[in-house]
TrEMBL record:
The keyword Plastid does not apply. Pfam families: Mem_trans (PF03547). GO terms for cellular component: plasma membrane. The keyword Transport applies. Its main location: membrane. InterPro entries: Mem_transp_PIN-like (IPR004776), Na+/solute_symporter_sf (IPR038770). Keywords: Cell membrane, Membrane, Transmembrane, Transmembrane helix, Transport. PANTHER family: AUXIN EFFLUX CARRIER FAMILY PROTEIN, SLR1864 PROTEIN. It is a multi-pass membrane protein. This is AEC family transporter.
Length: 303
């Protein structure tokens, strides 16, 4: 499919998720089941399949990780400055976090795979997904703890890292690639089928979880979050990877992943760690809808 067709497909499936929730077909239980399938089955299959057969010399590109960290912390600083005068710590914490914390797993990697196939670009995006998981979550927990005085269970968070299926599948894929172990054709074919489910299942789950109450939040705050996440972050990513003289596959993987909308998980963190849950939900909704247009623009630049 073409880039435009892929993004129209994204919008349609996302809309089906929203509609399914509206008519009562996608209940909370069914949406949770979709999320579980995406997180524990489809996404790990995509990560493993995209890395196991690759040349590690191509995938393990230092500029990819350096570029990602440079963009991430630059946007954290931008968000901190832009949102420094928010009315409360609950609002400010959510605004800062959702200005940088992107949906790398449920949207980023599947969209890269749909746009560029199962080659080196997707393998690099898989690596970036692992780096992002190890970076974004501790950073987000730290921001909430600092701004809201929230207490987090560090032991539970460490346990979550160690059992994260994305990190486990990434480690397994890189190990297979390093050892040169061939993946049997039936296994590869089965993983390919599961990987194809990653994007539609994730989109349905996201659509079923989105909600938007425009009367419950400050529109200017939402607008500033959308501007930083969906405009500033991709622009900074383009500049950083250009300045690093990154090769095309690194630039494509890095910029597209960093152009993703705010992660749905930030709503969970906001709810549990003293943030403004209404604002968090609205930002997830608006950035996800806006990403249909912004990702198309980004793909035109790097594709």
């Amino acid at each position: 499919m073409s880039v435009v067709t892929n993004l129209l497909y994204l919008l349609v499936v996302l809309g089906l998720g929203v509609a399914g929730r509206s008519v009562g077909l996608l209940t909370d239980r069914r949406a949770d089941l979709l999320t579980t399938v995406a997180f524990y089955v489809a996404l790990p299959a995509l990560v493993f399949g995209s890395t196991a057969g690759q040349d590690l010399g191509e995938v393990l590109e230092p500029r990819l990780v350096v570029g990602y960290w440079t963009v991430l912390f630059a946007v954290v600083a931008v968000g901190w400055v832009v949102h420094r005068r928010e009315s409360s710590s609950a609002v400010r914490s959510v605004a800062v976090v959702q200005s940088y914390h992107g949906n790398l797993g449920f949207l980023g990697l599947p969209i890269v795979a749909a746009a560029f196939g199962s080659g080196v670009v997707t393998a690099k995006a898989s690596l970036l997904l692992g780096v992002g998981a190890l970076t974004q979550v501790p950073l987000t927990l730290g921001v909430f703890a600092f701004l809201t005085d929230a207490e987090t269970d560090l032991r539970a968070e460490v346990r979550g890292f160690l059992t994260n299926p994305v990190l486990l599948s990434l480690g397994a894929g890189l190990a297979v690639a390093a050892l040169g172990v061939p993946v049997p054709e039936p296994v590869s074919a089965g993983l390919g089928v599961l990987a194809e489910l990653a994007l539609p299942v994730a989109l349905l789950a996201i659509g079923a979880s989105l909600s938007f109450d425009r009367d419950a939040v400050d529109r200017s705050t939402v607008g500033s979050v959308v501007a930083v996440k969906m405009l500033v972050m991709p622009a900074v990513a383009l500049l950083v990877f250009w300045a690093l003289a990154a090769d095309p596959s690194t630039t494509r993987a890095g910029v597209v992943m960093l152009a993703m909308p705010t992660a749905v998980s930030t709503f969970v963190y906001a709810s549990e760690l003293g943030g403004d849950a209404d604002l968090a939900s609205t930002n997830v909704f608006v950035t996800t809808v806006a990403s249909v247009a912004s990702v198309l623009v980004v793909l035109q630049f790097v594709g």
